[in-house]
UniProtKB/TrEMBL annotation:
Keyword check for Nucleus: yes
Compositionally biased tracts (Basic and acidic residues): 812-824, 836-848
A GO CC annotation given for this chain: nucleoplasm
Protein name as catalogued: Serine/threonine-protein phosphatase 4 regulatory subunit 3-like central domain-containing protein
MF terms in GO: protein phosphatase activator activity
Region feature Disordered, mapped onto this chain: 797-848
Gene3D superfamilies, per database record: Pleckstrin-homology domain (PH domain)/Phosphotyrosine-binding domain (PTB)
């Protein structure tokens, strides 16, 4: 016999002595596709008696003493013991009476563990072993179900169960079972589907006979069933929200919580149902579902901590139930060929409409889309609902609602100086339209095509144009924020992996931007021009009257600037020429430059927003946009004058101005580095993309650069005018500007290669922070770039002792830096580094 035959014989002998129920155990978290192997062992069904309490009934007292004899009941468990020498118990889980056990491929037993909340599987070696275990499970379930149905007690089965039926005499035992027999009582309620309804009926009987004592007991029992651990069982919670009992349950629960009349907060069923106005004229069946949804929401409000977790990603049982009802209602509404189209057409077909005619319908549609957007459900389900909604002409309805609301809003502004109810209602309507557009485009980016078709058909009153018109009309921050979010969703959108590589989505975004920047054929002004002129009017109006902008005007200016900034960030190179012409024609930067010259501290935040807009335009490094910054009276010249004329620099405004000129220096540096790249061979270094650091230039940007370089031309003009003053006021900035202007393309490329080193980058950023903090008057401990990072803790601990010694030895030199490390300016510049954004003032200058 050869070795192969011997191995076969040995294997056959081992298989012969293996147990019939040998299996591999696997587990998986519910909802996941991957399985994790736990081990290999023998599976058995173990039935054993378990003690669960003592006999505390009145008849159990013997000689005046309570009989503490524990009772027992049968518990069946599915057990797996490892077959190796350790004989570890790999699994021991109770067998439940629900039909959760199923077989796959004949030899795989699959179920969901009710305690762990995980999917389990046993893969048996042979089908006979699987059949044997399944047979034992079925026999146990059949016996237990029969015993419970007939009311028999088996081997110490809980003898209290026959005392848990809903009746007045059993209420003390039921109330005791809620705390003493939680597990068994939970099973009992779960197995009796009408138990909550029986308790509600018992409460109403006691209420009719004015038996307040037992009414209180029933209320306590129902409140306890909505607490942990009962509220995690779906079969129990579903009894509270059934069509037949939900309203009656809420009345009992309000009584139990002390809400027994209007003065104490009781809300009747009629009042709860009256809150839904049925703008879509839903059928009676759908109205019943809506009432169930409203009742479930009211129930969750009564017990917010018990019925809803704080984490929205892990919804409670009631939250999942409500979400399922919502989606069922929305599917039925969207599937109907008449429900929504009929209501939409009734509004669209009218030449003149009032807010009251579509306000409730608009709110209903807004709630639908917002629910779809925020729900944690598969993306396919969300897209399917929104596809159906768009097919039902929701965008034409939104356009009509937006047009009418803006017209009413403008009329109210003209006729009434004080806010009116009609003005508030029109503003909320515009906000709901913007939220609906945002929700649709966030989930379904391809819906931009419908907005573009609408713009091509009616450019004067399309939704895209009306959104920018709303940005110039509205007065309140919440409404303007909603419009701004809608604009962002049109041209920027959310980061979605499924659409990130879809070129069609990017093309549609740029087509929307083209409509805003260029307008339509035959139109005198593009929609973005109206936003810019509104900003100019507000700024010049406040400056001409010599006053500060009001709070409402400041909000409008800020959101207008944010909107223009968003467009400038994402617009393509081919549209930069049109954007530059629009800005120049509206005299936007000219007006903003005059606004920057006002030395009023209250305007600092608004002026910072202006500087942020200028930084965005300059960062594009486009020749057409950079023409806006050329000339002695350009806005960057005004910003430089602002930086040099005011000695107070430790505030947000001067931080923004400092970042602007730091950005200009980086753009010049990147411009030179990229120009050398164009002259080199087509073979690129694998580090080129990373070496550009914070630069956002691409090959498309390079095509718009002319010779001489556009960014360098702007910085050179600033240096010619302000170079001497920079050397006196901001020596470090002057040093950086001079260095960047004198830098050759080869030196720029070499510096990029050096900054690829992580250590070099960290060292430079630390020194830049110290220099910038010193320029802006912040008292910080300067850490030398040459010291190792491990000495930082020692340096911090020695601050107090070293500072006290220095103060004693300084004498009259009270103006010297408190923590300066060197009196040599050149040594200080070496320690701080050669490439920070701002240069620390030299010690000699400070002392002088």
């Amino acid at each position: 016999m050869n070795e192969d035959e011997e191995d076969t014989v040995v294997q056959s002998i081992e298989d012969f002595f293996e147990p019939l129920t040998k299996a591999k155990l696997f587990t998986s978290i519910s909802g996941e596709q991957s399985w994790t192997e736990i081990g290999v062992g023998e599976v058995t069904v173990s039935i054993e008696p378990v003690a669960f309490g003592s006999d505390t009934s009145p008849n159990s007292r013997v000689s005046g003493r309570l009989n503490r004899t524990p009772k027992k009941k049968r518990i069946a468990k599915l057990v797996m013991v490892a077959l190796d020498e350790t004989a570890d118990i790999l699994m021991s889980t109770p067998i439940v009476l629900d039909d959760i056990y199923s077989t796959q491929e004949g030899a795989i037993l699959v179920w969901t563990d009710p305690e762990l909340g995980q999917d389990m599987a046993c893969s048996f070696n042979v089908q006979e072993g699987c059949d044997e275990i399944v047979h034992k499970i079925r026999m146990y379930q059949q016996e237990e179900r029969g015993a419970r149905a007939s009311g028999r007690l088996t081997d110490g089965e809980d003898h209290h169960r026959h005392k848990w039926t809903a009746s007045v005499e059993n209420l003390p035992a039921i109330l005791d079972a809620v705390g003493a027999y939680t597990r068994d009582f939970g099973w009992y309620v779960r197995d009796h589907g009408d138990y909550v309804g029986d308790l509600v009926g018992l409460f109403e009987q006691c209420q009719a006979s004015r038996d307040t004592e037992h009414m209180e007991m029933v209320g306590k029992i129902l409140v306890a069933l909505l607490q942990t651990p009962f509220n995690t069982e779906g079969k129990i919670l579903s009894q509270f929200v059934s069509n037949e009992y939900v309203d009656r349950c809420i009345d009992v629960l309000q009584y139990a919580l002390g809400k027994r009349d209007k003065a104490s907060g009781f809300i009747s069923t009629e009042e709860r149902r009256a809150s839904f106005r049925n703008p879509c004229h839903l059928s009676a069946a759908l109205q019943a579902q809506v009432h169930i949804l409203y009742a479930a929401g009211f129930l969750k409000d009564l017990f917010p901590l018990s019925l809803d977790e704080g984490d929205p990603m892990c919804s409670s049982v009631l939250g999942s139930f409500m979400l399922r009802i919502k989606f069922d209602i929305m599917r039925n509404i969207c599937a109907s060929p008449e429900t929504l189209p009929k209501q939409f057409y009734a509004i669209i077909s009218k030449e003149k409409s009032s807010l009251d005619e579509f306000y409730d319908l608009l709110g209903f549609v807004n709630d639908m889309t917002k629910t779809v957007k925020t729900s944690v459900v598969p993306l396919d389900d969300k897209e399917g609902l929104l596809y159906s909604l768009i097919e039902k002409d929701v965008f034409p309805f939104l356009r009509k609602a937006l047009d009418v609301s803006l017209s009413i809003y403008q009329d109210e502004l003209v006729s009434n100086k004080a806010p009116t109810e009609e003005l508030d209602k029109a503003g909320r309507a515009v906000q709901m339209v913007a939220d609906t557009v945002n929700s649709c485009l966030s989930v379904l980016p391809v819906a931009r095509e419908d907005l573009l078709l609408d713009a091509a058909e009616r450019p004067a009153t399309c939704t895209l144009g009306l959104l920018l018109r709303a940005a110039t009309t509205l007065r309140r921050g919440a409404e303007l924020r909603a419009v701004f979010d809608a604009v962002q969703s049109c041209c920027v959108g959310l980061i979605q992996p499924l659409y990130a590589t879809n070129p069609t989505v990017a093309v549609k975004k740029q087509e929307i931007l083209s409509f805003w920047v260029r307008g339509s054929l035959g139109a005198s002004d593009p929609p973005l021009f109206g936003v810019m002129t509104t900003i100019v009017e507000l700024v010049r109006g406040a400056a001409g009257e010599g006053r500060l902008p009001s709070h409402g005007e400041e909000i409008r200016i800020v959101y207008g600037l944010k909107l223009v900034q968003t467009v400038a960030e994402v617009v393509e190179e081919r549209l930069c020429s049109s954007l530059s012409e629009t800005v120049d024609r509206a005299a936007l930067f000219t007006s903003l430059g005059l606004f920057l010259q006002r030395p009023v501290r209250a305007l600092a935040n608004l002026q910072s927003s202006i500087i942020s807009l200028v930084s965005t335009f300059f960062s594009r490094c486009n020749t057409h946009l950079l023409k806006l910054f050329q000339g002695e009276q350009s806005i960057v010249s005004v910003a430089m004058e602002l930086l040099l004329s005011n000695p107070q620099r430790n505030n947000l405004l001067f931080c923004a101005v400092g970042h602007l000129f730091d950005l200009i220096c980086k753009c010049v540096h990147n411009e030179k580095s990229q120009s050398l790249l164009m002259l080199q061979s087509s073979t690129r270094s694998p580090y080129v993309h990373e070496l550009r650091n914070e630069d956002s230039m691409s090959r498309a940007d390079l095509g718009s650069l002319s010779t001489p370089r556009a960014c360098e031309k702007v910085l050179l003009s600033l240096h010619d005018v302000y170079g001497e003053r920079m050397g006196q006021k901001l020596p470090f900035l002057a040093h950086k500007v001079t260095g960047v202007l004198h830098q050759t393309p080869e030196e720029a490329r070499h510096q990029d290669e050096e900054t690829y080193s992580i250590a070099s980058t960290s060292e430079r950023q630390l020194s830049e922070y110290e220099a910038l903090a010193t320029e802006f008057g912040l008292d910080v401990e300067v850490l030398s770039a040459t010291e190792p990072m491990l000495d930082i803790s020692q340096e911090i601990s020695s601050i107090h002792s070293s500072s006290s010694d220095e103060e004693e030895g300084e004498g009259d030199a009270t103006h010297a830096p408190k923590h300066s490390r060197s009196d040599d300016a050149d040594g200080q510049a070496t320690a701080i580094g050669k490439d920070p954004s701002f240069k620390r003032q030299r010690t000699e200058d400070t002392v002088a």
